[in-house]
Amino acid sequence: MAILNPILTPRRYLTVVLVTVISLHYFLSTSSTEYGHLTSFGTLKEQMHLTSVTTNTSTIALAEPYNHSTALQPVHNNNDTHFSHGRRANATFVFLCRNSDLNGVVSSIVSMEDRFNRAYSYPWVFLNDEEFTEEFKQRVRVLTDAPMSFGVIPREHWVQPDWIDENRARQGRMKLMNQRVIYGGSIPYRNMCRFNSGFFFQHELLQPYRYYWRVEPNVKFFCGLDYDPFLYMEEHDKVYSFTISLLEHQPTVPTLWDSVKEFISEYPYFIEPENAMNFISDDGGEKYNLCHWWSNFEIADMDFWRGEAYTKFFEFLEAKGGFYYERWGDAPVHSIAAALFARKDQIHFFRDIGYRHEDFQHCPSGIQWSAGRCACDPKDTFDYSQASCLPRFEGLFQ
Ligand SMILES: *[C@@H]1O[C@H](CO)[C@@H](O)[C@H](O)[C@H]1NC(C)=O
Ligand SMILES: *[C@@H]1O[C@H](CO)[C@@H](O)[C@H](O)[C@H]1NC(C)=O
Ligand SMILES: *[C@@H]1O[C@H](CO)[C@@H](O)[C@H](O)[C@H]1NC(C)=O
Ligand SMILES: *[C@@H]1O[C@H](CO)[C@@H](O)[C@H](O)[C@H]1NC(C)=O
After folding, report:
1. Could you give the CA distance from residue 145 to residue 60 in angstroms, rounded to a whole number?
2. Residue with CA closest to ligand 2 atom 13
3. Which runs of E-coded beta strand occur in 206-287?
4. Which residue(s) pair with 128 in the sheet?
């Protein structure tokens, strides 16, 4: 999906590491809310060895330090006993994939289960534009006792609508193919972007849930987590989060910003006064700077997408036909909406979640890297490479 090259000079990296370590030290020693139970470096060191509970059948790493006075509640799945902390968020993983993605799906689930979910057993929801095969279900079910459900996407949420002028859409595809834009000629890719923009959170299998963590085939989660990011979202009133931010290919969104500006003037009351406009525009909203959060990783609040502002916004964009006449991605669409309809402090950078989706990765550094026992090279991180929009995000809070 990406064709940009991360550029990170060693000197720049050193500065980044130093600044991160120093500011983290300051942060950890002053904040008691962000890290909950962590109050000083001393306790953090103790936490670095994940506590584990040994049962007769298995040893299970706990995601939080073991508190002997807190009763662990056994969760029964397939009659296997697992331990999980009592309080969980109203949340699920969402995995849009095809039967042919099976090996990549398996590898992503293993990564997520090993590094986070085995201590939580959050459910998995798999969505496909056709029925999952029995082989697919068997091979993913064997990986975990977490509940799993498999759904088919309603046709009208997936295929190119009839009212789209196919001649115009074909011309749009040809144009992007000639410009050698990635997925420029692909209709399925456009279906997927539109589905992820406006429909996944309407799927019946997702109705019971509020927060979701989007997972894709062949992604990697590098670090162990000693807390629950879903609960973090809930407790800190966050609506959207990311690990990587970057620039969109301009030819895929030539008229997107014009539509956004039209929407803003038609529905000014949906714009949050404490918005993150400066993340997506360098001139106060005149032009789109192409920055977006890379949406193949998302932990976010579906009630935000289900709300009035986003519903109207998606309908407005859908009516323009840009998902098919151009190649509007769900990443810029989600990012622009989150930046405009949420408060900037409701958007969160999960700096401590190491994540890779080809061709980029985010790897934490310093104490977060060691505390998370991260299986990635901290020098290999997109954060401050040339095409990264992270400095713009950080600039919002300076
Ligand atoms: C382990 O299993 C044995 C035999 O079934 C039982 O006597 C013992 O209490 C079990 N230990 C724990 C920690 O459950
Ligand atoms: C452990 O749990 C008890 C009871 O819920 C609580 O009072 C105590 O603060 C907890 N200790 C830590 C270190 O979280
Ligand atoms: C699993 O547990 C349920 C509820 O305790 C029980 O009814 C069922 O027979 C068990 N199944 C197996 C295979 O042990
Ligand atoms: C979880 O969130 C969804 C969406 O907001 C809601 O409909 C559902 O009632 C919630 N479930 C629980 C147990 O709170």
Report:
1. 13
2. 67
3. 211-215, 220-221, 240-242, 245-247
4. 152
Q: Which ligand is nearest to the CA of 46?
A: 2
Closest to 243 measured CA to CA, from 273, 270, 216 = 216
The residue segments making up the domain with residue 391 are 10-26+51-64+71-395
CA dist., res. 74 & res. 313, Å (int)? 43
Residue 122: give its domain's CATH number.
3.90.550.10
Active-site residue identified among 298, 308, 315, 394: 298
Q: Is residue 335 part of a domain?
A: yes
Query: Would residue 298 show up in a list of annotated catalytic residues for this protein?
Result: yes
User: What one-character DSSP code corresponds to residue 238?
Assistant: -
Q: How many structural domains is the chain composed of?
A: 1
pTM of the predicted protein model: 0.74
Contact criterion met (CB below 8 Å) for 121 and 146:
yes
H or E, element range at 115: helix 102-115
What residue's CA is closest to ligand 4, atom 5?
A: 210
Residue with tokens 């590898």: 107
User: Which residue type, as a one-letter code, is found at position 285?
Assistant: G
- State how far the Cα of 360 lies from the Cα of 2, in Å rounded to an integer: 8
User: Looking at the domain assignment, is residue 216 inside a domain?
Assistant: yes
- First-to-last alpha carbon distance for the chain, in angstroms, is 31
Question: Would you say the C-alpha torsion 61, 64, 70, 72 has a positive or negative sign?
Answer: negative
**43 C-alpha vs ligand 2 centroid, how far in Å?**
15
Name the closest ligand to CA 209. 4
Residue 146 lies in a domain: yes
Going residue by residue through the chain (398 aa), what tens digit of pLDDT does each one get?
444 444 445 555 555 555 554 554 444 433 333 332 322 333 333 333 333 333 323 333 334 444 444 434 434 344 333 444 578 999 999 999 999 999 999 999 999 999 999 999 999 999 999 999 999 999 999 999 999 999 999 999 999 999 999 999 999 999 999 999 999 999 999 999 999 999 999 999 999 999 999 999 999 999 999 899 999 999 999 999 999 999 999 999 999 999 999 999 999 999 999 999 999 999 999 999 999 999 999 999 999 999 999 999 999 999 999 999 999 999 999 999 999 999 999 999 999 999 999 999 999 999 999 999 999 999 999 999 999 999 999 999 99
User: Does the residue 37 lie in any domain?
Assistant: no
Rg (alpha carbons) of the chain, rounded to whole number: 21
Please list the helix, strand and coil fractions of the chain in percent, rounded to the nearest 5, in that order: 40, 15, 40
